[in-house]
Amino acid sequence: MAIVIETKDLTRVYKTYQKPEGFLNSLRGFVNRKYDSKTALNKTTLQIESGQIIGLVGANGAGKTTLLKMLSGLVTPTSGDALVLGYRPWERKNEFLRQISILLGQKNQLWWDISPMDSYALLARIYDLDPSAARKRVEYLASMLQCTHVLHTQLRRLSLGERMKMEIIGALLHEPRVLFLDEPTIGLDIVAQQTIREFLEQYVKEKGPTVILTSHYMDDIAKLAHKLLLISKGSIVYQGTVPDFVAKANTELAESEEVDFEDVIRRFLETESRVR
Amino acid sequence: MKTSFVVFLRRNLAFAKLAIVSNLEYRLNYFVDAVLQPTITTGIEMLLWFAVFAGAATTEIAGFGREYYLSYALWGAFFARICTSWMYESRMIQEIDTGSINSLLTRPMSYYEYYFSQLMGYKLITTLVSMLVPVIVILIFDLPTHFKRLPLAFALEFYYLILVHSISFVVASSAFYLNKVHSFTGAKNLALWFFTGELFPLDLIPEPLRSTLIALPFSAGVYVPVGYITGRLEVSSVWQSFISITIAIVIVNSIGAVIWRKGLKVYAGTGA
Questions:
Q1: Contacts of A94 in chain B (CB under 8 A)
Q2: B110 in contact with chain A, both atoms CB, cutoff 8 A
Q3: How many CA atoms lie within 13 A of A237 on its CB side?
Q4: Checking DSSP bridges between strand A53-58 and strand A227-232, what pairing results, if any?
Q5: For the domain A3-99+176-275, what is the CATH code?
Q6: Domain boundaries, chain A
Q7: How many CB atoms lie within 10 A of CB A146?
Q8: Residue pLDDT, tens place only, B2-19
Q9: What ipTM describes this predicted complex?
Q10: pLDDT (tens digit, 9 = 90+) per residue, A6-49?
């Protein structure tokens, strides 16, 4: 399989304003500010093959979203390099942007004030798609996600689950070769989570895009991901398959103990929060 | 095979339509914005000039009679609304501040064109709707207006909008560094209230400030187009304005490109 994502020593350092509490410190900070540097991603080197779903797992603030944002071109690295489909993402070339899609579960990508169908018509123009082909594709994806009935309702009037389905259709309309999904099931009920999970599984089987998926629901990762990337304090600490990861964890435990994927991740995150 | 220019045009036409479609979703808000607000502004400004002439007990100021000033106030209020960008500049700033810009940065289009076409679409439809107000008042009060000059005046106004949007782009791009920059919009629009000639005709200001203000591109917002259609100015002033706007567009966009490029480097992809 071809390598579609490649990074070398990818690093991002954020500079943040540090303000001690209180009114006087606000006044002091008005003229003299103190900044702190935080390494969100530290010298990350990885390779990802095409057609796979990669589960990116880590505690809050571990660097998952920063990595995703760098690979999709939203954030420029402080140092290091990366190639996605042969393009440097942060140069944001149109040829590159036409082949990727990012879905941030906590942000709307579609237009709030208009119906999803109007949004898709606009996206068809942005990606230079044939309007009637785009419409057929919307109908097909909507029927897969069982949400045809809300296509003409203003986005702001939809429930969270319906909105997420609309966002997924929008993200897939131009058939991206690389898809970045940042917590696509966040806040959804079990049924909606399940629908989206099954949809993604079927879609990847059919179309074969490379998917980078972050989620705090380990079921998403365990059921969908071909490979796992475990990230801790800005560094990748594990790259491999989910079964290998669980097997490795079990060999490190006492003979009488056996854990599943969710247990291993929970233990890992608990350790993380203690040493943070 | 479609040329990239055709694709570009279609895409931008779609952005312009988006502005119209989203504004028409909220009918009452749009009615107040496109009809009620210009009516109130026009009423206030005309009343002001009635009061000035009544108080001064004179028939002329700087060589022009009351009807000329009423006509200036009427068209001035109308043109000032076209050449001011509050809504889209605020949205641009907010998108960078809150990180909503993420969904635009990852699509094959530019932030500049996306908002430029929306601004143009919105201004075009609002101009057509709100033009009813000055036209009705002009006909009722028989105020001096060269209707034949309107197309060139509108051409200048919409050309000036490119500069307006370019300035908005510079202001919004500074949000990459400073986050909250809404006060910049307020200060800038307050200054332009004076510099465009909305407050009063710029030729009432004494020299040497008068020539300087008229030579600046901002006079193309209100003073030049309104002066032209009300008969205060001739066509040569319009051509001069086209030239000064062009120079300003080049300068402002050069600054904008630098701020934007550097801003993206420090941008942390806020939110999510």
A1: 108-109
A2: no
A3: 16
A4: parallel
A5: 3.40.50.300
A6: 3-99+176-275
A7: 10
A8: 578 898 999 999 999 999
A9: 0.87
A10: 999 999 998 888 888 888 888 887 788 888 888 999 999 999 99
